[in-house]
Amino acid sequence: MTSRVRHASKRVFHADWTHDYLFIPWDGKALCMVCSKIIAHIKVFNIRRHYNAFHRNTYDQVRGPIRLELVQRLRDDLPLVQERRKFAKRIDDSAAHQVAMKIANSNRSCKDGCFIKECMVAVAKVVAPDKVQLFEEIDLSESALRNKLQEVSENLGSRLSTISNDFICFSLCIDDYRDLSGTMQFIIFIRGVTKDLAIHEDFLGVVPVEEAASSQQFMDAIECLLRYWCSVLPIQLLVGITSNKSFIVSDDENSVSSLLKSKACRPPLASEALPGDHSTENGVFVLHCFLHQISRCMQILSANDALEVAMKCIDLLRTSCSKQPTAAIDLITQSEIGRLDHPEVGWIENVKILEPFLQLTDHIRDFIKSNHFTVTTKDGADICNMLSDTAWLVDLAFLVDISRHIKTMFNCLTSNDQHISEVFFAIQDFKSKLSIFRTEIDDGDLTNFTCVSALMADNDFTPDFVKYGLMCKDLDESFSNSFKELGNSSTALHLFCNPFSINLNMETTDPPGLVYELKLLQSNSILKRFFETLPLRDFYKELDQSCYPILLNNARFWIAQFSTTYICKRIHGTIEKRREKAMGSLKKNYLDAEFRLAMKSTETYRTT
């Protein structure tokens, strides 16, 4: 036993301290009967210091029998006083909670709490001087606000525990994130579907990279998160895994997805027994994030060279603002060219700067020449000469034109309320456009390439149509290869998207009863009218479980899928904004809470 513990065990409350300092023993500690302050260490020095600091001027003059009456009165009134103080503390906690939520929703730092309190006290001194003490008692320190946000995060997590009890099936979305210390973290989201086709998307947790050193450790960490937040949700209900990391979704038998598929082995849903479906082995549909695959497909267009030139010019303009304020600042602010801060996030998000850059190539070239700047690419090519080369500008214009069509598909992939079927058809529509573009380019028709047409008219230049046709062909083939997993599941996916278009003379009888359900459905004119007028999920809500169990199981399977990891990207953006304003105050211990609050502030939580 240490000296500190031995002395503490000998400390006892002396009865005369009640008369001298107005304290009473309270659960092994000392309680002030005047202000309900609790002294943890029972030492006469601590008790006397508190009395002299706060109550001596008021009660030291009270002596003799009057002091005995005072002690008795304080002892009798103590329960009522404590109740009032508990009520006041609840009010203060509620006020601190409101401030904490305002800070979280505005992506500000908890360090702002002290400044907010100073403002509140300053206003109270002017508006309500008699209420100043109430504002001063509210604890808005950084640690207090973080504790409030931690409580909110735990409440949000408990909501997931409640809702997950009703999940019929669920899928996981896995992405990576780098914290302030530079450590890689894996963030996991869950999407569950209930019996009545209600969807709930939520943040599941963070897996540090040291806990994911191997696929087996990663899978164990995922199971641990599921047990903690969804204790009654068995892993056997897992129907989908989506990630942008190839080592997670690869076909290797030791990959994370393969281990989870083997762990989730169960009797298949109806959708998994349909003919021609090979990507739902063991009941889990594994998908490499559409956004990541599209970014890889876009590399065929060789956009990196154009992006490098654009970024070099933008950096030059920004660094020259102090020397040429009018030309550089007007050029950047009026054109709305953005800064490419994260070139690794992918082609789709970066190519948006090319269109305004194309419109300003003449101004940028003149600016470089007039100031005698020398700007080169990493290969040593002179950028000023490239901006004067009509062939290079036409290639850039073709890239801008094709990116406009990609934007339509991208908007579908990043919308809040979309299913994997909508994404699949958006990709199919874009592939159809590529076939049309190929035919038009072979015929010399540039109707859908307005930027190229404008440059040809202004410079009397004939582009290399064969090169552009081959680029469209290669892009089409790249899309076909990248999204073959959807092609393998096209039967079940088409059954989900349009059960009225399925041929009733199909030879298969697996699963049993599917043809009967389709005949029953296609002969029902009321349900057909619902299908034509209602959103797809609302249509399936109109089906009777007892009559259409196979179709409803297939619908739940596809509705539960994450098609992209865009939900992770949205939360990344919110966290990054908070990190900038917090100036490094985001700590690893609060990472789970920060992600849950970021989802709440961006209204990413969805139960529909």
What would a concise description of this structure say?
This protein is α+β, with helices and mostly antiparallel strands and 608 residues long.
Q: What's the pLDDT, averaged over the residues?
A: 76
Query: Helical amount among residues, as a percent range?
Result: 55-70%
Structural class: alpha+beta
Low-confidence stretches: 267-282, 325-329, 331-345, 580-586
> How much of the polypeptide forms β-strand, as a percent range?
5-15%
Radius of gyration from the alpha-carbon trace, in angstroms? 33 Å
* Total beta strands: 9
The largest β sheet comes out as: 6 strands, mixed
What is the spatial order of strands in the main beta sheet?
8-7-4-5-6-9
Distance between the termini: 59 Å
Counted by DSSP, the helix tally is: 30
Shape: extended
Structure notes:
- The protein has helices at residues 3-10, 16-21, 44-54, 56-59, 64-105, 112-127, 132-136, 142-163, 215-229, 246-249, 256-263, 290-297, 303-319, 325-335, 347-350, 354-359, 361-370, 383-388, 390-413, 420-442, 450-459, 465-482, 484-488, 490-497, 514-522, 525-533, 536-541, 549-559, 566-582, 591-601; strands spanning 23-26, 29-32, 38-39, 167-178, 184-194, 199-208, 238-243, 285-288, 606-607.
- The strands form two sheets. Strands 8-7-4-5-6-9 form a six-stranded mixed sheet, sandwiched between helices. A three-stranded antiparallel sheet has the order 1-2-3.
- The chain is of the alpha+beta class.
- Helix 20 (420-442) packs antiparallel against helix 22.
- A hairpin with a 4-residue loop joins strand 5 (184-194) and strand 6 (199-208).
- Mean pLDDT is 76; it is low at 267-282, 325-329, 331-345 and 580-586.
- The two termini are 59 Å apart.
- The chain has 30 helices and nine strands.
